[in-house]
Amino acid sequence: MDTHPWDTQALQRRQEYQLEREQLVAEYEAKCGPYIINSNQVAGDQWTWIHNPWPWEYSKEG
């Protein structure tokens, strides 16, 4: 997109791929939990993610 900013076909494809990615991430997260964990979660002297459910602790029922 940087070298061809007026390429509407490329922009359309990018938007389609972005939508597909969002759908796939949502599907993954529904089955397995968070796709990306914010690594900057710190409270005091510990990581806050340690208190969240581990991937195997998520239930399929939600």
Provide an overview of this structure.
This protein has 62 residues and is mainly alpha-helical. The protein has one domain. The chain is built from one helix and two strands, in the order αββ. The chain has a two-stranded antiparallel ribbon. The radius of gyration is 18 Å and the shape is elongated.
Topology:
Elements: H1 8-32, E1 42-43, E2 46-47
Antiparallel strand pairs: 1-2
Structural class: mainly alpha
Number of domains: 1
Computed Rg: 18 Å
Helix content: 40-55%
Weakly predicted, low-confidence segments: none
Topology pattern, helix = H, strand = E: HEE
The largest pleated sheet is described as: 2 strands, antiparallel
What's the quick description here?
The chain is mainly alpha-helical and 62 residues long. The chain is 40% helix and 6% strand. The protein contains one helix and two strands; from the N terminus they run αββ.
